[in-house]
Structure to design on (312 residues):
């Protein structure tokens, strides 16, 4: 039986922007199901090298199987991309031609019920991408105080009803520990007025996103990883980032703009005295999004946004 793999998002666009060619050194910072990695290896082999990073043990094992025919050119590490420096020092690859970040939770993680990522399935409140770490979503829901909960839901979930949801969570856990996604979804639905639940999809979406980001420290790790990747990127190399929600996209957009900015002198100074030069060229002044055909074939691609920078 042929094994069915999840479809990589914006695959053609990723390959085009990375300008993969024989002999390239590419780092896939979010290896996941290795769909992007396999297609990249088809283009850079046999002389090229791919370094794959993922903090999910199950993803690592699946990727090793999928990429077995490229074993001589592939280096796979179980790590968080915030530790990119440590990984690349082990490989001793020198400068890199391209980096790919395909952010967020993978389809495989969403589909695995006991991981707790999905608000549509009843499961333990886990949400750890790396299951060797300690903090879980259940720990946050049951132990963070009302102020901390509200802050997380507001900042990471952009949840309008953050304070009310925090109140309902604290009230419920006084009587009984909250252990499952179903219990949390019921609390969220009770907290959000019925009129507000009629629009915008599942009312638990924003809370689950916020908890996942806090559990895995996704936004802080992204900021660290972007700087590390840029340091290893060779002049002319490409950095490709696919994000799935506005918080990630804002970080990437701001970071690219900062790297692309030359003079930072105050506008009242007529002549530049800072001497700053642009380090990067933004290659996607307009966001790259999936086509309607790709969304029809792979609904989880719907919210994808791709930004690309080229090192000067």
């Amino acid at each position: 039986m042929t094994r069915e793999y999840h479809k990589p998002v914006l695959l053609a666009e990723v390959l085009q922007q990375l300008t993969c060619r024989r002999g390239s050194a590419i780092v896939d910072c979010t290896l996941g199901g290795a769909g992007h990695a396999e297609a990249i290896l088809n283009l850079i082999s046999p002389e090229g090298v791919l370094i794959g990073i993922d903090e999910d043990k199950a993803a690592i094992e699946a990727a090793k199987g999928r990429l077995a025919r490229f074993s001589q050119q592939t280096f796979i590490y179980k790590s968080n991309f915030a530790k990119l420096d440590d990984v690349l020092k082990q490989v001793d690859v020198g400068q890199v031609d391209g980096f790919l970040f395909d952010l967020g939770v993978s389809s495989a993680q969403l589909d695995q019920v006991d991981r707790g990522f999905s608000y549509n399935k009843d499961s333990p409140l886990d949400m750890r991408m790396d299951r060797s770490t300690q903090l879980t979503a259940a720990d946050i829901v049951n132990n963070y105080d009302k102020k901390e909960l509200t802050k997380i839901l507001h900042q990471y979930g952009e949840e309008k009803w953050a304070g009310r949801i925090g109140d309902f969570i604290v009230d419920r856990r006084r009587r009984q520990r909250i252990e499952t996604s179903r219990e949390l979804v019921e609390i969220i639905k009770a907290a959000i007025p019925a009129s507000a639940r009629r629009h915008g999809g599942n009312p638990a979406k924003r809370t689950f996103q916020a908890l996942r980001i806090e559990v895995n420290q996704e936004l802080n790790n992204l900021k660290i990883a972007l700087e590390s990747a840029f340091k290893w990127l060779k002049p002319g190399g490409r950095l490709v980032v696919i994000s799935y929600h506005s918080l990630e996209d804002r970080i990437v957009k701001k970071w690219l703009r900062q790297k692309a900015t030359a003079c930072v002198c105050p506008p009242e100074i007529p002549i530049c005295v800072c001497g700053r030069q642009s380090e990067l060229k933004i290659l996607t002044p307009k966001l790259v999004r999936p086509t309607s055909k790709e969304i029809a074939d792979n609904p989880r691609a719907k919210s994808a946004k791709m930004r690309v920078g080229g090192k000067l």
Remarks:
- The beta strands are 25-28, 49-54, 74-78, 96-102, 233-243, 280-282, 305-311.
- The CA atoms of residues 257 and 282 lie 8 Å apart.
- The longest strand covers residues 233-243.
- Residues 218-232 form the longest helix (15 residues).
